[in-house]
Design a protein that fits this description.
The complex is a heterotetramer, with 2 copies of chain A (260 residues) and 2 copies of chain B (273 residues). Chain A is α/β, with parallel strands linked by helices. Chain A contains 8 helices and 15 strands. By secondary structure, chain B is of the alpha/beta class. Chain B is built from 8 helices and 13 strands. In chain B, strands 1, 2, 3, 4, 5, 9, 10, 11, 12 and 13 form a 10-stranded mixed beta sheet that branches. In chain B, strands 6-8-7 form a 3-stranded antiparallel beta sheet, covered by helices on one side. Classes of the chains: A alpha/beta (260), B alpha/beta (273).
């Protein structure tokens, strides 16, 4: 169990580390369906570092977008101007996402549970009278269902990492092994959950998310304390390698450090 | 073939209280000016249909125009919550809001079915999600060839589609380009269609990536330059991202929103728009 | 991302005996050069899939490449019969031809279903026609919301799509414009796709009405100027209507057709094409 | 019963009269789904005479085509160049034809029967071993099903006008009253059959085609003799008015008279 306590350089935040770690999950030349926010940031970082031929697909129908500036929405004009082609919203979901042509789906989450199910619909109360009404599904349910695999990016906290999501907006592994097949979900589902503390991966046996990586300077106990279920730690826990100079340079060009 | 009229006339003639109104434009070409005119005309009990209710729906909901929302993602893109939408769902203010909630893929296929004159669309979707339990517009369907279980969604057939586009010619043929969203489907699925445009031109000179909606499927067209702000019109003006960020503060408190409504909507004239 | 190869190499690597091959291009951009190369390579037992089998299918059928034809209209547009096709159906020459016959709307929806990763498509069609009784790829389906009876058609999932387009860039991104037909659907419904183009260019300068097929859904591209003749390539050359009329005499008699095959197909070189 | 025996001018053939009569069926400002051959000729004649705002839609996806020359195929480049918009083949059938947006469908036929059902599939033998294999359905079945109404153009002969078609490629009125509704066909179906001898229309009671017009110089008995069922003649049989000078001029520009 490798637990040398490397720490991150002063100028690298946990969010920076999370974004860099997420970007590293993307293989050059593959196609990635990109959610807005952290996923978009990480995907665009990947395209500027090790994956220049990453094909970015946004639910706005922009296929092969190469934004020079980070888009605020999934429908910024920049995406259409730089795309290989722009198709209608029905087409991007029916012809491109649904058949499983897209290798990786990159999603965020408000709540994620032990079996990597995602909630972006309500928190507290019931559906008719929620305490907090979240935006809802968007493209996520079908991205989670049909992409070859799914990578989730979410900050780790007791609020976000729960035993069981209050509302299943997008299915990870349902109640466990065999559920994706039973539900007819053809993609492999979530293979990695990238947080500001480390990386979680599903246990092949139980489909339960376990901690496989911590970021430099993060004690596994901190990750446990930020998780709403008994988080298991992989026998061979790894420490994420800190951002390289080129990764940091590219990240800073993408998102200037706070205050700069 | 589609008359060119003023914004207020267009909406007064085509949209009535209680109508189901598809207000489309996927981030791009959102018909804000038309929505503000609906508020000025004090339309009530509307069923608002839109994949991504953003500021435009927050405003209509806060102004009390909307009885029911049919949607798939209700947020302020890249910023956060829609506070008027949340206030309606969480506290029933200004009055309770009925919702019919879907995913983008489901909504897109509901429009496609409506545009195609079919009662339903088929997709691989919703399976295992809790969305299924909260609407009667999602049902299982079995492939008659393979026996495979898939999902059917009920067609959308709005009374009216309201969209914004870049240009129309004097006959009312409409041209739009950039991100296409579901506007064509929304127009073809609806019984009537109002289109606001940046400009009326003599000739729709062909453009890469542009689609044309023939005048004979459009009810009327109104020339409204800037009609999509703070959203954008590809080739005319950019998205006002600052405006989207600023909305968070405006919409957070009922009073601030009411003041905004007075100044920015009721304080302006649709005929002049 | 899609390799640029010679015509003969492209087809030798991608199309095998017994494959189902979608050969599309609706009057426009018909992949004649690719079809002739299939004849030269003496492909056999192909299941040929095409809405409008015209001269190109008449030639493949007459040359003995085709075991089964999946189609919706088999004629010489504006001229008359396809004599090689008729000879195969009426007299089993050069050998019997199995057929799976549909309407254009049905075939189009079968491609759409295939491109969408669905096992079937739904339409209002075939009801009351005798087409229903002669294929197992048409079945009734009931709307789970309204109970309405509609028609389902089985998805098309060809082994290979072969299409012709105007241009590709060096990465293999394909651009085509003019009448679009079902080429995009055929490519996306198929496991592999060969695209012949009029020219390879450094940059796909955007064009009105043009669609782009990204290289990552194309298996390989071959540059074949004139590859659609006697059909046409919008912006490059016109349809050779005289050639279509002349085909009637060439194809009417087996001997004349055999002579044409020797001179115009086997007498030419695919690598040079 | 008006039976004055006007005759056609020397230079006007029966086909010319058929085309002119068919063109007259189209109302200006309506949308017409056009089959190739005689229908296309008649529709283009209408656009050049009384219906300049006729919207021509071809199954090639060309909507609002305004061809300067008569197309040989339904996919000539001329149609795309002059169209208001060009859509894919799936779109023209699903978004435009199927919902019933198109007022008139203009069809040809190899065989048509007493109840206006159309056969363009086989003649003689059986389906597996036909004596004559015809091209097949194309867009006709759905045009016949979904257009507001249908106009058929076909030369009248015993071969073409049969008691019952050998193969129902496109449904007219099936076996008679109520069948269209029973089959879920939403358009009104064939309202006129224009031939080289006259015009047939369905009897509202029986949906049987009866002779309502003869062209100038045509005796109703000639029409009867060219029909494979007991053709009934309308009580108020009319005589088609001969082509006007403008109609003839436009027709000649469209299709030069034989030998000229």
């Amino acid at each position: 169990m490798t637990t040398e306590r490397a720490v991150l350089p002063e100028d690298v935040t946990a969010d920076d580390m999370m974004t860099v770690a997420a970007a590293r999950m993307l293989t050059d030349g593959t196609a990635c369906f990109v959610g807005i926010g952290l996923p978009s940031m990480a995907a665009n970082l990947a395209r500027r570092t090790h994956a220049p031929n990453l094909v970015l697909i946004y639910e706005s129908g922009t296929i092969g977008a190469k934004p020079a500036v980070l888009p605020l929405s999934i429908g910024d004009g920049e995406l259409a101007e730089t795309a290989d082609t722009v198709v209608s919203v029905p087409e991007v979901f029916n012809y491109w996402l649904q058949p499983g042509r897209i290798d990786v789906g990159f999603l965020g989450a408000a709540q994620i549970d032990r079996h990597a199910n995602i909630n972006t619909t309500i928190i507290g109360g019931d559906y008719a009278h929620p305490r907090v009404r979240l935006p809802g599904a968007g493209g996520a349910p079908e991205i989670a269902a049909s992409c070859g695999e799914v990578v989730v990016i979410v900050r780790q906290s007791l609020r976000a990492f729960v035993e069981r999501v209050e509302f299943v907006t997008s299915v990870g592994f349902g109640d466990g092994p065999g559920d994706r097949e039973r539900l007819g979900l053809r993609g492999r589902g979530p293979v990695k959950v990238i947080t500001d503390l480390g990386v979680l991966e599903p246990d092949p046996e139980t489909c339960e998310l376990i901690l496989t990586h911590v970021h430099p300077g993060v004690d596994p106990d901190r990750a446990r304390a930020a998780t709403g279920w008994q988080l298991r730690v992989a026998a061979d826990l790894h420490v994420t390698s800190p951002p390289t100079a080129p990764e940091l340079r590219a990240l800073r060009l993408l998102v200037p450090a706070k205050g700069s | 073939m589609a008359p060119i009229v003023s914004l207020d006339q267009a909406l007064a003639e085509v949209v009535h209280d209680g109508d189901s109104v598809a207000l489309e434009g996927f981030t791009h070409l959102i018909p804000f000016a038309a929505a503000h005119e609906l508020i000025r005309q004090r339309r009530r009990d509307l069923t608002l249909i839109r994949l991504t209710p953003d500021l435009v729906c927050d405003q209509l909901i806060g102004a009390g125009c909307v009885r029911k929302l049919v949607f798939s993602w209700g947020g302020n893109p890249g910023v956060g919550s829609l506070h008027r939408f949340r206030d309606a769902v969480e506290h029933g203010h200004p009055h309770p809001l009925e919702i019919d909630e879907h995913s983008h893929a489901g909504m897109a296929n509901r429009y496609v079915a409506g545009a195609s004159g079919l009662p339903f669309g088929v997709l691989r979707g919703y399976s295992g999600t809790d969305l299924v339990g909260h609407t009667d517009t999602i049902r299982p369907i079995t492939c008659p060839f393979t026996g495979e279980r898939l999902t059917a969604v009920a067609a959308l057939r709005p009374d009216v589609a309201v969209v914004h586009a870049q240009r129309a010619d004097r006959a009312g043929n409409v041209q739009l380009w950039g991100i296409l969203g579901v506007q064509k489907e929304a127009i073809l699925a609806s019984a009537r269609a109002v289109v606001t445009v940046e400009e009326i031109v003599d000739e729709l000179e062909p453009r890469p990536g542009a689609i044309v909606i023939p005048a004979w499927v459009v009810t009327c067209v109104a020339e409204v330059p800037g009609g999509a702000r703070p959203s954008y019109a590809h080739g005319y003006y950019d998205r006002d991202n600052e405006g989207y960020r600023a909305w968070d503060a405006i919409s957070r408190e009922r009073a601030a929103f009411a003041a905004w409504l007075e100044d920015e909507v009721f304080g302006r004239d649709g005929a002049a728009a």
